[in-house]
Amino acid sequence: MLDATAWRADKPPDTATPDRIQPDTVQVFDTAGQYVGVEDASGKVQPAQEKPDPLADLTEEQRFIATLKDMGRVRLAARAEVGGRIRGWVEWVNTSGETVEQLEVSAIEALGYTATWAEYGVKLTAGKHVIVATPWPRVMPVREPEARLYNLSPSGGAAGLASAASEGGTADRSGVTIDYAQGKRPDVFPRSPGYEPGTTYTGPVSSL
Asked: Phi/psi class of residue 199: alpha, beta or left (left: φ > 0; alpha: ψ in -120 to 50)?
């Protein structure tokens, strides 16, 4: 039974829409905008036929590995032979060059895949589903450190940040005041009183 609140509209079909719609039919959508079928000339609604699941023959563990392709491109990250046994790591890299998932080949085998090592890399097989991981060259994303200059002027405050393009010689800018006289420099930190010869140091007296 279809929802009685379904409405009809001439809108592009989604993924569940049949590839071909007869000219004398009307597409029907539910209140959420999801395609539910077509209505023929007699007013009868034909439910939409869902597309078959290409991963229906996989277990939940195998499906997890198979769906990682939607997150990034598979790559053989490392390969080594330890004690006559080949070990390797496979990663999935997104379009930004970041690793979104990384697993050891033995862990993928534990999830239900069969690993076959070859000169080009490793082939992971689960039934009719095959994943080929090769050590294609990867360019690591480089993040340049952001240059910051701190504004320590009295008007700007100690916590103020100046832009990376800010340099000295900004006295002509509005709101910037430089208190400076020739031969006199304002101290950044307060000075301790100087030592006078002949005086005796008296430490703090405890009241306890």
From this structure: beta
CA distance 99 to 43: 52
The one-character DSSP state at 90 is E
Backbone angles phi, psi at 127, to 5 degrees: 65, -125
- Residue 132 tokens, joined: 């080929």
pTM of the predicted model over 0.90: no
Residue indicated by tokens 């990867």: 138
- What residues have CB less than 8 Å from 160, skipping those under 6 apart? 150, 151, 153
Q: What is the DSSP letter of 66?
A: H
pLDDT in tens, 4-25: 445 445 545 554 444 554 556 6
In sequence order, what E strands does 40-105 have?
Answer: 45-47, 73-82, 85-93, 99-104
